[in-house]
Amino acid sequence: MQPVISIDGLTKTYASGHQALKQVDLEISKGEIFALLGPNGAGKTTLISTICGIVTPSTGTVLVDGHNIQSDYRKARERIGLVPQELTTDAFETVWATVTFSRGLFGRAPNPAFIEQTLRDLSLWDKKDAKLMTLSGGMKRRVMIAKALSHEPDILFLDEPTAGVDVELRRDMWALVRGLRERGVTIILTTHYIEEAEEMADRVGVILNGELILVEDKTKLMKKLGKKTLTLNLQDPMQAVPTELAEWKVTLKADGNELEYVFDANAERTGVPSLLRAVSDLGIGFKDLNTAQSSLEDIFVSLVHRDKPARPSTGEGAAS
């Protein structure tokens, strides 16, 4: 399948000498939700801004649906909707006017029915005649999304879309994103809320110090890098871990009421059977046990804190 976004050898070095992007290679397929994760200053916004034509790359090429973002800017840009982090709106305009104006900027013919449906989808219809200055932060965020969708783009960039919004709006936006994906819209999401990526993304990219250190299918990533945790709920609290359990590196949790063992579920020998035998031999009673898979947040933290970042994986769509 032809990628809808193709990035090859992309770098960005500012006049100050700061290298914001380092040799980024990435392909994103039509209709997928791609989550870009990274700490503050990692290069997420610079990468998005470069793809959208806002920042000029130092080297490399970016194609949007086959159109070069520099030599064929207009064709590339009209396929993109961007919801930036900043809430930049004309305070004295009404919701209806600002969204309609955004559609016209891209040369699209007026379509009041589409604008109405967009505002309804974002729970903005009852605010259509309200001036933007009267809206709450969450409502302004919805307006920014409506503006980005006004010209019916094939690709939607959401740069920290739920920063500072309440849980209800966050869930509404998740539902909206899923609906857009069903219509074939490609969505690139940057977020600090790991649960957003875990909930919605098809693939995950991790960027660190301007380098895309990993691109992987979310499910495969969690299976490949995620650990499992075995928790034993003890019948009687313990003061310390017996020396006989040292080889498993178990830890005491919940004021001595739980024994926790972290293991690799994909390993040939997980150590779980032998640990349970050792616990039984020591006469340690437990009321219950359970296992839990590491979350995407656990994986992200472990990647970001590695001493030496790995090169991106060679999975489909990954940098090679």
From TrEMBL:
Domain of life: Bacteria
TM spans (from-to): none
Gene3D superfamilies tied to this protein: P-loop containing nucleotide triphosphate hydrolases (3.40.50.300)
InterPro entries in the cross-refs: AAA+_ATPase, ABC_transporter-like_ATP-bd, ABC_transporter-like_CS, ABC_transporter_ATP-binding, P-loop_NTPase
Domain ABC transporter: from-to ranges: 5-234
GO MF term set: ATP binding; ATP hydrolysis activity
SMART domains: AAA (SM00382)
Record keywords: ATP-binding, Nucleotide-binding, Transport
PROSITE patterns recorded: ABC_TRANSPORTER_1, ABC_TRANSPORTER_2
PANTHER family listed in its UniProt record: ABC TRANSPORTER ATP-BINDING PROTEIN (PTHR42711)
Entry protein name: ABC-2 type transport system ATP-binding protein
Native source species: Brevundimonas halotolerans
